[in-house]
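Narrative summary of target 7.
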Amino acid sequence: MTTTPMTRPPRAPAALRMTPGRWAALAIGVPIALAMIGLSAFSLVTGIGRASFPFHTSIPVQNGHLVASTGGGDVTVHQDQAKSHSAQLTGTVQYSLVRPHLTKSGDGVSLDCRFLTGNCGLNATLDVPLDTVVNLASEGGNMQVNGIDRDVTLNSGGGDVTVSGVGGTANVSTGGGNVTASDLGSTVRFSTDGGDLNGNSLFAPQVTTYSGGGNVTLVFTKVPVNVKIISDGGDISIVLPAGSTSYAINYATYGGDYSASVPVSKSSSHTIDVQSGGGNVSIAQS
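Modeled conformation, tokenized:
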């Protein structure tokens, strides 16, 4: 007679013991996981629900001066070849799901986006009449300005600014974007709270720049009269035209290296003042 051995039934798994740490992990992790799922779904919906609409408005020019604002979008500025009593601001608004409210005023437009996430912004072109002084502001968009024959003042809340071919004084400031300039022959003043400053083909006699931490690079095609540069931490590089012109140079690096390969004279009428909060300073000839 054969005896079949009895097998013990499998034991049920022990119930997971909920410790205070596990309860805390659930209390924190579950809401975060649900929020991430919700954000992913919302991003998918806003990506699918994109749309746009065009706009156009006239901005008056008073006594040869134009004061305009784009409220946060990207703007490209061109000069018209005819004189007029108004500039023309034309562009497109892109948005997701809910159409934003675009307000037109005497000095430009402002855009009220309904959602903090998703796509909402504008791209605009500003056509400026001939012989007009331009004062343009944006709450954060990028600016590109070329070929204005009078003074230009540009103020961006944080976008990049590109400026070239300005006949008058160029005064540019941004809350943190980069500034790129070229072909400027009058007084130049640049300021950014953190971006880089890059100037090429400069023949301006007076140049003043400030960067909250980015690098500053200036390349001159004509001997400047006065250059003043301050960077709170980035490197400073100045390239001057080749020749025998001497410069009175004052510098402070606060930790970085300094080098100069140009003629130097304390009595020179061509002055260069440079200050870097920790970066290197280089002054050379082309």
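The first strand starts at residue 50 and ends at 60.
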